[in-house]
Amino acid sequence: MTGKAVAPWVRTRLRTAPGAAAALALLVLVTAWLAAAYPRGVDTYEDEGLRRTVASAPPGRTALQFTAGAPGLALPDDQRAAMVGPEPMRQRFDAVVRNVPAPLTSDPTQSTYGLRTTRKLPSDEPYLPRPNGLPPRFTVASQADLGSHSRLVSGRLPAGSADQKTAEAEVAVTVETAKSLDLRAGSVLHVTGIGRPPLAFKVTGVVEPLLPEAGYWSVLPALRTPQLLPASDDRDAPKYWHGGLLLAPTAAATLFATDGKPEMYVQLAPQTTALTDRQLTAVKASLASVQSGPALSRLHTVYAASSSSYTELDQVLRSYQTVRDSIDPVVAVAGFGTATVAAVVLLMAGGLAASRRAAELALLRARGGALRRIAGRLLAESTVVVVPAAALGLLLAVLALPEGRFGPALAAAAGVAALGCLALPVRAALTHRTVRSAAERADPVREKPSARRTVAELTLLALAVAAVFALRRRGTAGGPADALLSAAPVLVGVIAALVLIRLYPLPLRWAARPATRLRGTVGFLSLARAGRAPGGGALPLLALLTALTTAAFGGSVLAGSDDARDRAALYATGTDARIGSDLPLPGDLPGRVSRVPGVQGISPVSIEYSVPLPAGAGSGQGAGGDEGENPGDIDRTTVAGVDPASYARLTAGTALGIDADRIKAPPDAPGKAVLPAIASPAVAHRLGKEPVTLHVAGKDLAVRVIAVQDRSAAVPQSDFLLLDTAGLGAKYATVLLVGGTSLDGKALREAAAGAHVSVALRSEVRQEYADSPLQTGAGRIYTAAVAAGAGLAALALLLSLLRGAPERSALLARLRTMGLTRRQGRSLLVLEALPSALLAGAGGALTGWASIALLAPGIDLAGLALANTGGLAPVGAELRADPTSLALPAVCVVLLAAGVAAAQAWWSGRRGTITELRAGDAR
Questions:
Q1: Which one-letter DSSP state was computed for residue 117?
Q2: Helices (DSSP H) in 655-804: which residue ranges?
């Protein structure tokens, strides 16, 4: 054997077995594609999630806002006016943009600058609306580039220069400001001047914002939409209108003549189109520099000595990071499980090829072939097939997922290629270390584990125990993904597989003894064959148990996420739909709503907020509570009056259901009897068990808490006291609870049109919880990983059965020559395959349940289940075992094994005995 024969060897082997080479190439192609797609898929949904988080946050939180006091306080008026002219202000803006450190970049289309008042300027014009007798107040800003961000509706844009001595300056207002404050082109607003007569602002035009929700208009929303603000912090304080006036940049100096304490400002909208998750740490460092670091020091020089910065972008990024860090460990569980199964399948493929060529390799060794040279030729033979297939898989993954890092994908595909290349030569080298004429038979029943195997198994057991302990103690919500923690379910499955392999001979021995006393030979022969079948040893069971554990764990994770979304949506709306208002609902609204298709029931609710609770009424033990339990002290609550019968019907079968008879008011007149009530834990603790008097709906009522409920459909998101409307004496409903299936939100809103109400559907709220690239992307990755693991596990089972297929076919042929019928042959192969399949199925279901029970305290599904909550779920999003996810994969394994065995028996019967039994065949 010389090195010159390597090329002919490889070409000859590939021509001899093109089918095996094509099957290996296909296996490596799919595995490399999955391995390379996983990190790119994770990068893609994380990048999209980060961009959506920043883009969907209010612009007032994400914008970088730089402010500085009015310049040149000690300078003459003309010099001060020149300092806030269009060109100097533009130069300051450009300097700020240049000094924002990378990778933090701004969006020039939504960034702006100017001079604005910080103190609202009142205008006492007689035509302006006064809701509570207070005149409107205005914020005036010389915001740059108004014409590019608005459409002129009437009049013209403000123009002309003005300074501190000018009597009148031109301004523009938005459509909403003009509508709410009765303004139009030509309106004049006077504000108080400093040391001069009042300054007049003349409205020259009305504009409509092109992108009203974008940063240009929404960082300071009063410039776009007027607001009704309270005059003080008192709850019943009178309100006034606060609007915005858009001053021409050439007239910015006029603000120096007002009492508005003007300031220069720059607002930079962050650029999100190129933002990636890998830049998160660098972006946070840039923000820290801008807020209180070197970048802010530079701004003191290039912008203004008194400049300061403000942004909540760091908090937005932190909320995203919290959700991402709670999702990543859960998704990594599926990745680790699928990677383990894929590695086992590649090893089994190499083992199958080695077993099929055992006689050939043994002959080469017997004729003096060096083990190193044989392994090298097998490596070259595998490399020719595996490397192109892995490269093609990597290319397909890059084309399918154009975003994401290339490095991790390349490393994953290279790992698949390395394993695929080494599986056959390493297995052959280990099997043929010594020269022998034929491979010895591996008998699981008689095989005894070696000391090295025992040490390896104990090491894995220690790792599994450490991973489970760490996961239960630390959880998945406290930080980024950790390899050991994410591999905990896989390690549990591996340990279970090793334990079952050691226990596997025992049931076979126990079952073989009574089988010897049966009249037929099929039962005993199938059990004997099950213990000696060359199925690949521990690898098939390891693949099946790992896949089943991952599938059970993954199915339970997905089911738990769906359950958390369902409960969160229920707790947000109370019932299938909720129609509410701060004012009494129209009397004909229930009739209109009841005629909407799909509505099956309605329940009116009368709600009064901020009802004072008696001080010191509680006894320290709420109704149904434990002594000493203190869920929190409150002095006000929300009282809801409901119709017990209709309310109980709508909430029946949910976590918010009640017993209608328990809160029915006594037949006495309202105010004369003690009303039974259902309370939240905090209210129940405050009121205690004895009757107390509350001032509700303008009258004093005696109330006694008879039951405690964590949440209610009437008041789903705060503490509450639930009473019968009849005893409460409420005449008007403020909320309408609606029940039904397949409710049409558009039809409901049309039915409630004109009533000034809000309509919320549980189905829409549930969709909002899942409407996030981070959650939906992670869910897709998890589902795909579990599905791929299940497919690879099925392939592992097929490889295990294929390894012994030639021997089983020959056995059936021999037994048929001795009188074995086709039916008995089919039963023999099915019964032979069942022990290992039943062991894998039952062991997988049991291992999946055990892993969920062990790891559930450390798994937080809030981030994966609920979007727009910052990872803080309004409900417990805990992991529970899903019976379907446990039972279905196990049953599929048993059915697949039985089906393959039956199919082989049928195919062997068609081929005939002479075809199977050939002279010189060693099977």
A1: E
A2: 681-687, 725-728, 745-751, 762-770, 773-803
Model pLDDT for residues 860-873, shown as the tens digit of each residue: 677 677 765 543 34
Q: Which two tokens stand for residue 859?
A: 């798994």
> CA-to-CA distance for 97 and 268, rounded, in angstroms?
8
Q: For residue 683, is pLDDT > 70?
A: yes
The residue type found at 64 is L
Measured CA to CA, the distance from residue 663 to residue 297 in angstroms comes to 65
Measured CA to CA, the distance from residue 885 to residue 864 in angstroms comes to: 18
Strand partners, 699: 696
- CB-CB contact of 174 with 125 (8 Å): no
Give pLDDT tens digits for 723-757: 888 877 767 788 888 888 778 778 888 887 766 77
DSSP 584: P
Tokens in use for 774?
């981070």
Tell me the C-alpha distance between 683 and 631, whole Å.
9
Question: Which residues is 722 bridged to in the sheet?
Answer: 640, 678
In the beta sheet, which residues pair with residue 676? 704
Give the separation between CA 492 and CA 490, rounded to whole angstroms. Answer: 5
Q: How many residues are given for the chain?
A: 923
Helix (H) / strand (E) containing 608: strand 599-612
Tell me what the mean pLDDT of segment 831-849 comes to.
Answer: 78
- The one-letter code for the residue type at 688 is G
Asked if residues 785 and 39 have their Cβ atoms less than 8 Å apart, the reply is no
Strand partners, 266: 66, 113
The dihedral built from the CA positions of residue 81, 83, 84 and 88, taken in this order, carries a sign that is: positive
Walk across the sheet containing 720-724 and list its strands: 692-696, 699-708, 674-679, 720-724, 636-642, 599-612, 735-740, 577-580, 758-761
Answer for the pair 322, 71: CB distance below 8 angstroms, yes or no. Answer: no
Structure tokens at 213: 């929700």
Positive or negative: CA dihedral 666, 671, 675, 678: positive
912-917 mean pLDDT: 57
- Strand-pair category, 150-155 with 121-122: unpaired
556 touches 852 (CB < 8 A): yes
Alpha-helical segments (H) within 57-85:
59-62, 77-83
| Cis ω before 597 (30° cut-off from 0) | no
pTM as predicted: 0.77
Could you tell me the two tokens for 401?
């997922």
Q: What DSSP element (H or E) covers 694?
A: strand 692-696
Do 272 and 317 meet the contact criterion of CB atoms below 8 Å apart?
Answer: no
Q: What is the dihedral of CA 336, 483, 476, 539, to 10 degrees?
A: 30
Rounded distance between C-alpha atoms, residue 164 and residue 77, angstroms: 7
Which backbone phi and psi does 912 adopt, to 5 degrees?
95, 160
Q: Residue 664 corresponds to which amino acid? A: K
Is the Cβ–Cβ distance between 714 and 605 less than 8 Å? yes
pLDDT in tens, 870-887: 433 445 566 777 788 788
Residue written as token pair 């801008």: 290
- Candidates 373, 420, 372; CA nearest to 392 is 420
